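Help needed: design a sequence for this.
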């Protein structure tokens, strides 16, 4: 916008307000021309806009769904680890029994299977046992962990 300036007696510059206001009254011309030339959006513009929104929306919903599945799997794994830890604490608190057998338990919708195998190198009762805890949920195995238990009164 061109602004005209005039000098006053004191040497300061003032803006010619009339010319400035006249320039502001001119009709605005945008990139596509004046408003009279463009009355609305065409069907193609609307369809392209809807298609772009659709692609963005599908991508967002897909990411949301994947995140939710990852959250469910992480929660299932965390619960299985907590149940396994609890079972091993119970096993460690029991006295050593050479004739121990496994058992099955159900807690909070999770199936827990505990098995015991005597580690035997000879024909005598073994002072070492391998305990395995398997946790499954909805018919699929989530976590299997093994640990050993040793008879404190063993003769090695």
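Sure. Designed sequence:
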């Amino acid at each position: 916008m061109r602004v005209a300036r005039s000098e006053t007696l004191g040497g300061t510059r003032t803006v010619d307000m009339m010319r400035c206001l006249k320039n502001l009254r001119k009709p605005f011309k945008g990139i596509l021309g004046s408003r009279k030339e463009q009355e609305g959006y065409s069907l193609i513009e609307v369809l392209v806009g809807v298609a772009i929104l659709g692609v963005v929306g599908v991508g967002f919903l897909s990411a949301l769904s994947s995140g939710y599945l990852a959250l469910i799997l992480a929660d299932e794994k965390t619960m299985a680890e907590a149940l396994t830890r609890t079972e091993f604490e119970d096993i460690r608190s029991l006295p050593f029994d050479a004739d121990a057998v496994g058992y099955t338990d159900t807690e909070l919708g999770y199936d827990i299977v505990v098995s015991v195998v005597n580690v035997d190198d000879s024909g005598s009762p073994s002072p070492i046992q391998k305990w395995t805890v398997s946790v499954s949920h909805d018919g699929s195995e989530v976590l299997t962990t093994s640990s050993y238990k040793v008879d404190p009164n063993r003769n090695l």
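Residues 65-150 form one domain.
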